[in-house]
Every structure is written in C-alpha cells, then in structure tokens.
C-alpha cells in the first residue's frame, strides 16, 4: 500500500496543577498527537488489510517523537501512555485496529523502560467525535496512580472516509493520586505488570 495520506495533524496538551487539592510542585502534563488520514479501505469490505500496519509505522514514530518533544523532549520523563482511533462512518472498526501495532510499538520504541501493554480504544464516528483514550503506566500496568484517560477529538474529523489516529502520553500519575498500590518508584520492570 502507499504511504498514508495525511489531511491534518494536531497536538493537544494539558498541564494539570491541581484537581481541587493542594497545588502540585510539579504539574502533570498530558498530551495527545492526532493524525487524520484517508482510510484506504473506506466504502467496501477488504479481506486483506493487515499490510497497512507496516505503512503506518513511520507515521507512528513521527507522532510519538512529536509528542515527546511537546511534553519537554525527554523520553525518560514519559511515565504513562495510551492509543486510540476514530474511524469515519464509511469505514469499519477493524480499520481502527490497524493502529494497535504501529501506534503502540512506536511509543515503546522511543520511551525507555516501556514494557507494559499500551491500552487502546477505538470507535466509529464523524467530525467532532470525542474519544476517551485510556492511559496506564508505561512500564508496569499495575501502577494504579497512572490509571487515567484523556479525551481527544477534532471538530472537523474524521470525515466519512478518514481515520483519526491518536497517541497519548503523560509525565506522571494523576495529580492527587492516593489510592495505594504499587508506586512508580517501586516498579521492577520485569514483565510489564509490576
């Protein structure tokens, strides 16, 4: 397949100082990189689609690097991540699943100590559709303080024959995390869980 046809890209950034409690000494930063591409499978069923994952890999790496740069430029500062896709109405949910490998592995390639599975979500929707992208700790899925989500979306996409591909990263736990469990500083990083 040819290189993905990109209509637009966007970065969404949040800096969270507090959630009603004390102001954090170091705020939590969350960011999302979004790329709206033409869906080459829109409009009809295609039995063979898996090859498009290879075509998406360079885009995944570029988006991951842009997001790391937007969050300060230090890949080691990234503690949480997630991914997602919004498929336009002329596509099918499986087209969003094509983002699992290129989206997840691009972040894991650039972020040191990122053994945890990258959580994901996808849905069908039109322009203005919002997506809650789940977030977990990048190296240990059992770190409760990093269970989070980021709502993303664009007012003009995806159009019917497009897909909005999303990567999300954070620089730490929820700003007032206090529900116990495994802490970031106690992660062993042996199996992506603990």
TrEMBL record:
SUPFAM superfamilies: BB2672-like. This is Peptide synthetase. InterPro entries: AA_synth_put (IPR009569), BB2672 (IPR035936). Gene3D superfamilies: BB2672.
